[in-house]
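hey can u check if this looks right to u? its 371 residues, i copy pasted from the old doc so theres a chance i mangled smth
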Amino acid sequence: MSDESSKSRTLGDVYRCIYYDPQSTRNSIADELGLSLPTVTNYLNALMEDGLIHMAGSLDSTGGRKANVYNIVQTVRYAIGINISARHLSVVLIDLGVNIIDMARVRKNFEDSEEYYTTMAGMVETLLDTHNISRDLLLGVGIAMPTIFNSDQKTVYYAHVIRIDNNTFSRMASFIPYPILFCNDASAGGMAESRFFPRDKSMTYLSLCASVGGATLHNGEVMIGDFWRSSEFGHMRIHPDGKKCYCGQRGCLDAYCSEKILSSFTEENLGLFFEQLPQNPGFQFVFDEYLEHLALAVINLRMCYDLDIVIGGNVGSYMADHMDALRKKVIRLNPFEKNADFVKACHSKTEACAVGVAMHHINSFVNTIFQ
């Protein structure tokens, strides 16, 4: 590696230190990278001159000079995330700090059609125009769907909830003039949730949406498996010869814990179900049964992975007030532990799948800058 290449790479490493630690100081960066303080100062000055970082105050002093804190400039780049489900279309605009700038959501049945893609592209352009985002600053568009994709993030391995084929990518790309990629929706939701975990802490994400899925993450990255089918939790068998699943098998978790089990009582309005739950004995009975099945899934995941289990997806966004009830059921099934603090409600409640798929473009930018 040439001296120039080495300096460029180190400049990127300094940037990544600051990106992943918003309390970065000159000393902490020097310790992390094994660099001298004058060398770090030179790199910090270069990053500030490029408009990539800024000084964001100082740490409280325990004596002597206060250490300056450096943060990234979050408006340097943007990304768009799109979540396509069978009946809804969501578009989210995020900045480099994964802050949601704006979003749009419409009730629209998925169609592999020009009219659908025109609507989707129009929603993207409207968000960009509304916030005067230069297209030069847009890293790309990520599209999350309840589909298993191959490693190229373009071609389809398995699609049942919505019907797409290997030509869908090129058809969508003809309507969206930016770099695009596909991602499984549950994996994207797990990616969004990973922001709330330390990067060196692994976790398992259980996504409870119109279909059930999940993701296992380590170092902020989704573990994809040999054939990109990892964490398809919706097709774990929890009741042999039980309810029929859309996959054709019986007893799958999806048949017992998709959001439809609850929202079917309120004309597909999940929020209304949880709103009426405290006053409705019938809903309470249904929800208690739902939690029994969910607890069985959680303990199976705990036995397999021995990690924190995060309840995410649309149901997960309403679970914060019901975690005690779920944990009590999990404890009864756990042969090793007398508490279930490892079961957590998700933090990422707003369009997690769209945010997570947009993060693929953000992460690519951060991980490759100056390389």
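The chain has three domains: 3-72, 78-189+352-368, 196-345.
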